[in-house]
Each structure stands twice: as structure tokens, then as C-alpha cells.
Amino acid sequence: MGTDINDVYGKFRNKITDYDLLELPSLVEEEMLGDYLKSAVAKYNKFSGSDIHFDEEAFNVDLTDDQIDILATGMVYYWISPKVYDTDKMHNIFNTKDFQGFSPEKILNRMKEIRDQSYRDFRYDSIEESFLGGN
């Protein structure tokens, strides 16, 4: 049967808090999540194009919990990267009442740390899984 794509999306949602994502129409959200997943799958180098069908919302293979977690971590990297690079959006975030008490530099540095750590975790885990636990 294979693994449902929503299993990966659910793991991704558990790793982040993004209220803007919750406000999007479901089709737009699914398209964004699909783009993040496609990018993570391409970088993972574990699956071929025939292993995943976005139309059917499923993988043709059964993913392990570790593989789902690795893909979700990759999705976190692709989710946070545009937020770090979009200076207009960052300016708007820093001017909200929630963030006025914090240093914009510290917030940006923390976001960069999260982005860099998620990328390191994704790459390390995908390489480790390929060599140690891969099929």
C-alpha cells in the first residue's frame, strides 16, 4: 500500500508553529506542503520519482518512522528558509507587539540557527539512514 503523505505532513506540523499556515485555504496549504516535501525528497536521495504520487497522496513504499522524521525535518528547513531571507516579512514580524520587546538581531540569529540546525539534522540523518539503516 505505501505510506500516506499526510503522515509526513503531520510530523512536519508537529515540528513547527505557524499560524499563517493554518489560515490558508486547504488547497494552498497542501500545495505548499507538497513543495516542501518535493524539495526534501529530492535532497534525501533515497527515493525515485516513482516512489511518490502526489495525486494519490501516498508513497508507493512503506516509510519507516525514521524516514518520515527525516523528511519532516527537511520540510522544516524548506519552510523556514524563505522566512529568514524575506526582509519585508521579517520587518513586519519585528514591528508586531509580540516582538517589540526583543532584539531583532537576536530573533533573526535564532531563526538562522534553527534553519542551519534543521539542515544539518536533515543531511546527517539522511546520510546515516542511507548507510546504516537503508534498504
Q: What is the helix/strand order? A: HHHEEHHH
Total E-strand runs: 2
- What class, by secondary structure content? mainly alpha
Sheet with the most strands, sense and barrel status: 2 strands, antiparallel
Number of helices: 6
Report the mean per-residue pLDDT as an integer: 79
Distance between the termini: 17 Å
Stretches where pLDDT is under 50 for at least 5 consecutive residues are none
Task: Record keyword descriptors for this entry.
two-stranded antiparallel ribbon, globular, mainly alpha, 135 residues, 6 helices
Task: Describe the protein's topology.
Blueprint: H1 5-15, H2 19-23, H3 26-44, E1 52-53, E2 58-59, H4 65-85, H5 87-94, H6 104-133
Antiparallel strand pairs: 1-2
Concise overview:
70% of the residues lie in helices and 3% in strands. By secondary structure, the protein is mainly alpha-helical. The radius of gyration is 16 Å and the shape is globular.
What does this structure look like?
Helices cover 70% and strands 3% of the residues. It is mainly alpha-helical. Strands 1-2 form a two-stranded antiparallel ribbon. Strand 1 and strand 2 (58-59) form a beta hairpin. It starts with a helix and ends with a helix.
